[in-house]
Every structure is written in C-alpha cells, then in structure tokens.
Design brief:
Length: 166
C-alpha cells in the first residue's frame, strides 16, 4: 500500500467524522426544540427508539434499493429510489443530534449556558470517535446511531404534533 492510498483512506474517514459533526451542529442550530425532544426519547425509551427506527427505516431503505436495482433505467424511479434511502438517512442523522446533545450534557462545561451548541460539538466529537473502532464501530455503533436517530426523529415529530394547541 502506497502513501497515497493511506492518505486517501485517512482523509475519507476524517471527512466523514467532520460531516457527521457538521450535520449535528446544523441540526442543533436549525431545530433546537426537535433536538431536545429527540434527546428525551433517548432518555425515556432508548430501546423503543431503536426498534421503531429499524421497523420503519429498514423497509424504506430496502424498497429504495429494490427500486434502484430493478428500475434503474427510469430517471423518475431513480429519484424515488434515492428518496427512500436518503430521507431516512437525513432524518436519522437529524434525530441522532439528540444523542450527541445527550452525550455532551454528560460532559459539562461552564461555557454551556452561553453557548449551548458546545454540548452538541463535544458530544458529537465523542460519539463520532466511537465510530472509529473497526467492525463494532462501523457495523454496529454507526448504523445503530443513525437508525435510532430515525426513530427518535419520528417520535419527536409525533410529540410535537401532540403539543400543538388546536
């Protein structure tokens, strides 16, 4: 393996970690109430959050893959196939911002009151470092984080709809 291959892999991994943290920070900045509701889901019902994410996101992603595999020649079907994959992934990353926030709350700092996004940055950094462990981090922790984030996002949206006065 030459140095260019090593650098390519290293920079891809570092870039992926930066992208996750960027999405988590953007989620905190754009949807702070949803992040708070998502973090409550992780505290109150973590297993239900993971199972709901698996039950709902799994079939959507499989359907998207089947559409891309069987109807690849049709551009409209390609859009639908990618939508079935990317929308759950994006909602999963957005919902997992609550997990990053929760991890950051466990690492308190005196500057948290003035800058609440620091919790997400600290928690997201620690959480993304757990993705680095070979095999367990790649195939267990990372998918469980995104899948449970999808479940947390669904439960947070449902909770927000209940809070809206008629």
């Amino acid at each position: 393996m030459i140095m260019a291959d090593v650098l390519k892999i290293f920079l891809l991994v570092v870039g992926a970690l930066i992208v996750f943290n960027s999405y988590w920070l953007a989620g905190q900045a754009l949807f702070p109430r949803m992040v708070e509701r998502s973090s409550r889901q992780y505290v109150n019902r973590p297993i239900k959050t993971l199972l709901l994410g698996l039950i709902v996101a799994g079939p959507l992603v499989l359907m998207g893959l089947a559409i891309l595999e069987n109807l690849a020649g049709n551009p409209l079907m390609n859009i639908f196939g990618w939508s079935f994959i990317l929308i759950p992934a994006l909602l999963g990353v957005l919902g997992s911002t609550g997990l990053a926030w929760k991890v950051g709350c466990g690492l308190p700092s005196p500057e948290d009151e003035g800058q609440p996004w620091l919790r997400v940055l600290r928690g997201g950094t620690v959480l993304s470092f757990t993705f680095l462990l070979p095999f367990v981090g790649w195939f267990v922790v990372l998918p469980a984080t995104v899948v449970s984030g999808f479940g947390a996002a669904i439960l947070a949206i449902r909770e927000a709809r209940r809070e809206v006065p008629a």
